[in-house]
Automatic annotation (TrEMBL):
Pfam families: zf-C2H2 (PF00096). GO terms for molecular function: zinc ion binding. The keyword Kinase does not apply. Residues 15-42, 43-70, 71-98, 99-126, 127-154, 155-182, 183-210, 211-238, 239-266, 267-294, 295-320 form the C2H2-type domain. The gene is LOC106553938. It is found in: Nucleus. GO terms for cellular component: nucleus. SUPFAM superfamilies: beta-beta-alpha zinc fingers. InterPro entries: Znf_C2H2-type, Znf_C2H2_sf, Znf_C2H2_type. Keywords: Metal-binding, Nucleus, Repeat, Zinc, Zinc-finger. This is Zinc finger protein 239-like.
Length: 320
């Protein structure tokens, strides 16, 4: 610790950090700062044991356990655990986006969102999964991804008991019980349960496609769409069936496959009541009722409900 005359503007900061040279007004503030370098976290949460640098940060953290949300939005009444989160939320109402990307000019309401976006330009993904080798731009995203391998779903709905890997997914799911859709599109007036769902929808109006595949050049409106598409090139299949070990590139394919084990048939025909495991099978089945047979043989003119049936039929002609 060094005491030194450091002036920033009109404020004297005589206490300088020996590690990084940053100056502070008081010795106490310097000592708190030095915990960044030492890794010391003396304030422990009694609920989960997590440590924090200051008592104030601990008190904010404890609101996760108590559910306390003292900061209320004057526009919509939504409450938040921290003043910063309230400030970020209020930009949804004001439309303010003060954080601008110097690469492409796109603006963001939050500095963290800008930081994440910036990695789409640099391609930086420093966090690697030890199980499958998949890389991520954020440590948080790696942690969430690893639950694919562990099967961990710590976030449970108190209404129906369904569990989720992500707190955001639980929050979105909970709105299926309440029917709440607070996010409205300014273009068409349609409402959405989450701000991310609204942002994805808005791209249908703007035609914006910022995410480009480096392998084939195809562009996508959403980073998730690019990530799923990239598995065509990498061959990655991170979603594994616990029953038979078969792997799939997309979670929806795994869920559909698992019905072959459980016998689940959630898709019901409104005309005859017959149930199906897959929505595509139900769609094909409804053609029996509508009389639509869209696939026609070029050789003999015979119509078929689905393309696979037409392909089988065409082999009759190829043998002739």
């Amino acid at each position: 610790m060094r005491q030194k005359g450091v002036n920033v503007g009109s404020e004297e900061k005589p206490f300088e950090c020996g590690e990084c040279g940053k100056g502070f007004v008081t010795r106490t503030v310097l000592q708190v700062h030095q915990r960044i370098h030492t890794g010391e976290k003396p304030f422990k949460c009694g609920e989960c044991g997590k440590g924090f640098v200051t008592r104030t940060v601990l008190q904010v953290h404890q609101r996760i356990h108590t559910g306390e949300k003292p900061y209320k939005c004057g526009e919509c009444g939504k409450c938040f655990s921290t003043k910063n989160n309230l400030g970020s939320h209020q930009r949804l109402h004001t439309g303010e986006k003060p954080h601008r990307c110097v690469e492409c000019g796109k603006s963001f309401a939050q500095s963290a969102a800008l930081w994440r976006h910036h990695k789409t330009h640099t391609g930086e993904k420093p966090f690697k999964c030890g199980e499958c080798g998949m890389c991520f731009s954020r440590k948080y995203n790696l942690g969430i991804h690893q639950r694919v391998h562990t099967g961990e779903k710590p976030h449970r709905c108190v209404e129906c008991g369904k569990s989720f890997a992500q707190s955001g997914a639980l929050c979105s799911h909970h709105k299926t019980h309440t029917g709440e859709k607070p996010h409205q599109c300014n273009e068409c007036g349609r409402f959405y349960r989450t701000s991310s769902a609204l942002r994805n929808h808005v791209k249908t109006h703007t035609g914006e496609k910022n995410y480009k595949c480096l392998d084939c050049g195809r562009q996508f409106a959403h980073s998730d769409s690019l990530r799923r598409h990239s598995r065509i090139h990498t061959g990655e299949k991170p979603h594994k069936c616990s029953e038979c070990g078969r792997c799939f590139s997309h979670k929806v394919c795994l869920v559909t496959h698992q019905r072959t084990h459980t016998g689940g048939k959630p898709y019901k025909c409104l005309e005859c009541g017959k149930c199906f495991a897959h929505p595509s099978t139900l769609h094909t089945h409804t053609r029996y009722h509508t009389g639509v047979w869209p696939y026609k043989c070029a050789e003999c003119g015979k119509p078929f409900l689905c393309k696979s049936k037409l392909s089988l039929h065409q082999k009759i002609h190829s043998r002739d």
